[in-house]
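Quick review question:
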């Protein structure tokens, strides 16, 4: 749903066909990414005013519900975490995963990108990856 923030009136609803666990706007405002209860990431395209255009892409890749989503600061990468225990790094230009980061098999809850090249994921403990262009390197704190 989209609300007008001055009046808090609902001005638009975009049905996604699945429960939404997390949302993240692209840094340039062109897309809204929805982490959903389905095994897909839903990509809602937005017009220059920030309203949905009606185009929604489905990016498959997780084996279970997608729990979290995070854009890189420059908008060139997207990370999603899932209840499947994986973090997927996506190429937003193609809608395909560029890397799968293996967790310990338990659900991943939140993601955060802390200035390149670090990606952190939280569950029972902090997992962090040193994300370099070709080879993400994991460690656990």
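Suggested answer, residue by residue:
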């Amino acid at each position: 749903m989209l609300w007008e923030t001055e009046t808090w009136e609902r001005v638009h609803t975009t049905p996604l066909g699945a429960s939404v666990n997390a949302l993240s706007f692209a840094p340039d405002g062109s897309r809204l990414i929805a982490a959903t209860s389905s095994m897909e990431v839903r990509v809602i395209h937005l017009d220059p005013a920030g309203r949905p255009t009606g185009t929604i892409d489905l990016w498959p890749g997780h084996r279970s519900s997608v729990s979290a989503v995070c854009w890189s600061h420059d908008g060139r990468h997207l990370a999603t975490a899932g209840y499947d225990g994986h973090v997927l790094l996506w190429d937003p230009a193609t809608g395909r995963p560029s890397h799968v980061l293996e967790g310990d098999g338990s659900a991943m809850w939140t993601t955060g990108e802390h200035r390149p090249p670090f990606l952190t994921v939280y569950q029972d403990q902090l997992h962090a990856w040193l994300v370099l262009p070709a080879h993400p390197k994991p460690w656990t704190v």
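Why it works: Confidence is low (pLDDT under 50) at residues 134-141. The longest strand covers residues 52-60.
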